[in-house]
Amino acid sequence: MPSANPKTKKNGNGELVTALQALGFQRIADELDDLMARATRQRWSAVQLLEYVAKLELQERGRRSVARRLARSRLGRFKPMADFDWDWPKQIERGAVERVLGLSFMERNENVVLVANQGLGKTMIAKNIAHQAVLAGQSALFVSASDLLLDLSKQDTARALERRIRHYCTAHVLVVDELGYLSYDNHAADLLFQIVTRRYERRPVVLTTNLAFAEWNGVFPNAACATALIDRLTHHAQIIRIEGTSYRRREAEQAQQQRSQGQRDRRRRK
Fold first, then answer.
1. Domains in the chain, start-ordered, CATH in brackets?
2. Beta bridge mates, 5
3. What is the Rg, in whole angstroms, of the alpha carbon atoms belonging to the chain?
4. How far apart are CA 203 and CA 86, in angstroms?
5. Confidence band for 269, pLDDT divided at 50, 70 and 90
6. How far apart are alpha carbons 233 and 201 in whole angstroms?
7. What is the pTM of this model?
8. Residue 5 has pLDDT above 60, yes or no
9. Distance between CA atoms of 168 and 140, rounded to whole angstroms?
10. pLDDT of 7
11. Which of 65, 150, 222, 239 has the fewest beta carbons under 10 Å from its own?
């Protein structure tokens, strides 16, 4: 059990702090001295004090809940949409992106498919969608297609596989990133089909890919379920295509130009 704040103990509230901590009211325990001083100064009634305490605790529990969902989402670090350069892609439907960021697709259990070449921000958008879902009180899970299929493929019993499938079907939003960069066998295609089928019209999938659907035969060569997989993903789905050249290539070129300019400036000074 956490020890009581020494300062609060000196003021005679040590037992109260300990009780608050035991009840899980950590923020109230931490701010007890300031809270009591404020209540005395403003001459709060017992009801006013309890209302404030309840409000403070609800805020703290909401914050902790968001923090837990973010940790479970496995989003990692990502840039916010405020940093997205809308003018860089040659083609992007900004309104469609902003609508999915508003989570309207979740109300209708629609999937979202982001189709773009590497370096155009599709993963950034997908992570921001998941982040918005978490902030809205929903659960989200982000996983690359390769990690998802590797995890499912390595399960050595039917029970273990079922447990992992349920894991990927539980989150309100499942983001499957970067489908199309690797090829998979028929078994992997069947596993992904199971995930998509179980979530179909129940909970949405947000998927990013660098390939048009006509090219998916290269991802799942000879897989009998490839057509059915595409059908389940795209039925009741918002498909957003982004065209252009890579942000990362532009940033690398800009960095190289800056280095070259710096070298020229140093030579001139010599």
1. 6-73 (no CATH), 83-249 (3.40.50.300)
2. none
3. 26
4. 29
5. confident
6. 10
7. 0.80
8. no
9. 10
10. 44
11. 222
Q: Note the pLDDT of residue 265.
A: 64
- What is the residue-averaged pLDDT of the chain? 89
DSSP state of 63: H
Using alpha carbons, list the distances in angstroms from residue 248 to 94, 119, 167, 211, 252: 20, 6, 33, 19, 6
The number of CA neighbours under 13 Å toward the Cβ of 177 is 19
- Nearest of 262, 199, 196, 258 to residue 226 by alpha carbon: 196
Distance CA 73, CA 126 (A): 12
The residue to which tokens 């309890």 are assigned: 50
Strands in 111-116's sheet, in edge-to-edge order, are 140-144, 173-179, 205-209, 111-116, 237-242
- Give the C-alpha separation, 173 to 163, whole Å: 18
The amino acid present at 23, given as its one-letter code, is: L
Which amino acid, residue 40? Answer: T
Q: Which helix (H) or strand (E) holds 176?
A: strand 173-179
Express each pLDDT in 44-69 by its tens digit. Answer: 999 999 999 999 989 898 899 999 99
- Ordered alpha helix ranges (H), the chain: 6-10, 14-22, 26-30, 32-41, 46-73, 94-101, 104-107, 122-135, 145-153, 158-170, 186-199, 226-234, 247-269
Q: What are the pLDDT digits (tens) for 83-131?
A: 999 999 999 999 999 999 999 999 999 999 999 999 999 999 999 999 9
| Backbone phi, psi, residue 9, to 5° | -60, -40
The Cα–Cα gap between 164 and 186 comes to 19
Left, alpha or beta for 24 (phi > 0: left; psi -120 to 50: alpha)?
A: left
